[in-house]
Design a protein that fits this description.
- This protein is α/β, with parallel strands linked by helices.
- It has 2 domains: about 240 residues, Spore Coat Polysaccharide Biosynthesis Protein SpsA, Chain A; about 60 residues.
- It contains 11 helices and 8 strands.
- The chain has an 8-stranded mixed beta sheet with strand order 7-5-6-4-1-2-3-8, sandwiched between helices.
- Strand 2, helix 3 and strand 3 form a beta-alpha-beta unit.
- Helix 6 runs parallel beside helix 9 and helix 10 packs antiparallel against helix 11.
- It is elongated and about 90 Å long.
Amino acid sequence: MLKSEIESKNGLNNTDLSILIPLFNEEESLAELYEKITNVLDGSGLCYEIIFVDDGSKDKSYEILEKLHARDKRVRVIQFRKNYGKSAALDCGFKEVRGKIVITMDGDLQDDPDEIPALVKKINEGYDLVSGWKKKRYDPFIKRNSSKIYNLVTSAVSGIRLHDFNCGIKAYRSEVIKEIEVYGQLHRFIPVLAHWQGYRVGELVVKHHARKYGKTKFGAFRFIAGFLDLFTVVFLHKFKKRPLHLFGSIGMILFLLGLAMNGLLAYQRIFENKYLSNRPLLFLGVLMVIVGIQFISIGLLGEMITETQKRRDDYSVKNIL
């Protein structure tokens, strides 16, 4: 019997809403976050579940989640063996959710559960993905302003205008998360990936709170990594299935230019009796031919990898409640 048939028989796929929360070392926030979510949803009439993905926490987060699960079976818990990052946590959670609508939010209490009904309403208006916009942020100065630059550049490159691509609180139709693969650090670009797949993406202003417990995971490297990941997303979107088109084009241009230079120098040496030992153009031409061939070779290797490689999950699950 298929998993979907088993779930249908047991009534597990009748869940209206899934709340997915990736977390890392948030022991002080979890009980309060659970209370806030249940206070918002218990009177809503929705059948819901709360999935916590513990991304290898080193504090007592998992012990607290065990207690919440024992208290409320709507709470489901996935524990990683070590810290793999937010993308891995979301990818694992996306595979486990049962709800027709999925809400993601961070576990640090900076995202407000009171926004959940508004996000659900926005989805029901016809959007496939609704991203939160922390219009008034309570983050450190560097994080606020670096995020503005990052969002402007991402909007320009991706062709979709959003103010806060990396906002933790978002709403999705289930078919969106089942189609989009999230790995590496691509969680920042889920709205971009959904937009490029033809889904309707919207935005909603949400409340943001100052961090109440713990400390931020933001660092200077994440700002740099964000732009590198943007290049990755653009490359995968345009050339994932045809890497030779990119590398081969660059290689052919360099190869032909180098060949033309060497042809000109060969003509001058043979027919005009000019010596080439003091001609830097000769070395440039040879270099361009070699580099051009290398680029073409990289493109061919990329084509081979595209045909043969299947991505495996890059995380290891330790426990599931």
